[in-house]
Write a structure and sequence with these properties.
By secondary structure, the chain is α+β, with helices and mostly antiparallel strands. It folds into three domains: 103 residues, Double Stranded RNA Binding Domain (2-Layer Sandwich); 122 residues, Trna Endonuclease, Chain: A, domain 1; 85 residues. It is 47% helix and 21% strand. It is built from twelve helices and twelve strands. Strands 4-8-9-10-11-12 form a six-stranded mixed sheet, with helices on both faces. α2 runs antiparallel to α3 and α6 packs across α9.
Length: 342
């Protein structure tokens, strides 16, 4: 069985926070005052793991307290044990960490190693063009805030978001009546429009007589966001913040196939030694589902690792759609539990 230090180090790394910034990835563990940066998520987590081991060793030998992680705790040096004895004891246990599992219980290398997504795509004939959107930290902060708000309230915002997309496609103002809406919908819609106005994504916003009127921005960035980019971003944030353990999430993965065909994958997730592909559709899932079925075959992924997250697919149709097109059709709320059980 694993020793107490092994269990503690694993629990500490599970509690780490991983965030992508414009210059790379940042992994941190505030409870131990640790933060590292690297160009890739894998390297950032590896550096943080090393830093955790060093910090734990230092605190144990100095008799300083260590925080508990998910109920796993460690005590300092035993009474009467000097620094040299404590170091020898701790190092001896650290030396055993790599061999704490019986040989027959060790996972195969292909399952224990997180895939390199660029290499994984190349093996399937997908030439990677771009995997990240270029945006400033402030832009990311604003759009993340909006995406989290919209994702958490997408059901009550559904009617308003449909009219917003229609307004953007026709060039007409957004006009949305809340005469028959309940208090939750009224609050959510007016709060969203207020946020849009704060960030200059709508102009001339008014709410009178329970009718919302606003002039949506024609800026390409906002058009892409309002037409479905918010759902992709929301799912990315959900995976990065809620999935336990190390993971890599890419959004907006642009590729070229050997025949010259170009395309984009909404989300790729490397998690627990597997790759998951996730497409997000705010509307008209029927128009793309056959193309997704073909892409799944090219990616050589099983249906349980290929997801279509749809806001409009009827609950009673999701199972038949999944079986017919060999994709897992789910709502945003259903995605995370399925990934956690994968």
């Amino acid at each position: 069985m694993a020793g107490p230090i092994r269990r503690y180090l694993e629990a500490a790394l599970e509690a780490a926070e991983l965030e992508r910034g414009p210059g790379g990835w940042r992994a941190e563990l505030p409870a131990l005052g640790l933060a590292v940066e690297a160009r890739s998520a894998k390297k950032a987590l590896a550096r943080l793991s090393d830093a955790i081991e060093v910090e734990v060793l230092r605190r144990l030998t100095e008799g300083r307290p260590l925080p508990a992680f998910d109920g796993v705790a460690l005590a300092g040096a035993a009474a009467g044990e000097g620094p040299r004895q404590a170091i020898a004891r701790i190092r001896a246990e650290l030396d055993r960490l790599s061999a704490w599992l019986p040989a027959e219980a060790k996972p195969p290398r292909s399952e224990s190693k997180r895939p390199d997504l660029a290499a994984w795509l190349a093996e399937r004939g997908f030439k990677l063009v771009r995997a990240f959107e270029e945006e400033s930290p402030e832009e990311a902060k604003v759009l993340n805030r909006l995406a989290l708000f919209m994702g958490a309230r997408h059901r009550v915002l559904a009617k308003c978001l449909k009219k917003l997309k229609r307004a953007l496609s026709t060039g007409k103002p957004l006009v949305h009546s809340l005469q028959k809406a309940d208090p939750e919908e009224i609050q959510s819609v007016t709060q969203l429009c207020t946020l849009f106005k704060e960030y200059a994504f709508v102009g001339d916003y008014t709410y009178r007589g329970r009718v919302v009127r606003a002039e949506p921005s024609r800026e390409p960035r906002f058009i892409n966001f309002a037409n479905g980019g918010w759902l992709e971003r929301y799912l990315q944030l959900l995976l990065e913040r809620k999935l336990k353990g190390p993971k890599t999430v890419w959004r907006g993965v642009q590729f070229t196939l050997p025949g010259g065909e170009q395309g984009e994958l909404d989300l790729l997730l490397a998690y627990r030694g597997k790759v998951f592909w996730i497409e997000a559709k705010t509307a008209a899932y029927q128009s793309g589902i056959r193309r997704y079925a073909r892409l799944r075959e090219l990616l050589d992924l099983p249906p349980e690792q290929s997801f279509l997250v749809s806001l409009e697919a009827p609950p009673e149709r999701k199972k038949s759609l999944s079986e017919l097109y060999r994709l897992t059709v789910v709502s945003p709320e259903e995605l995370l539990p399925l990934l956690e059980r994968a």
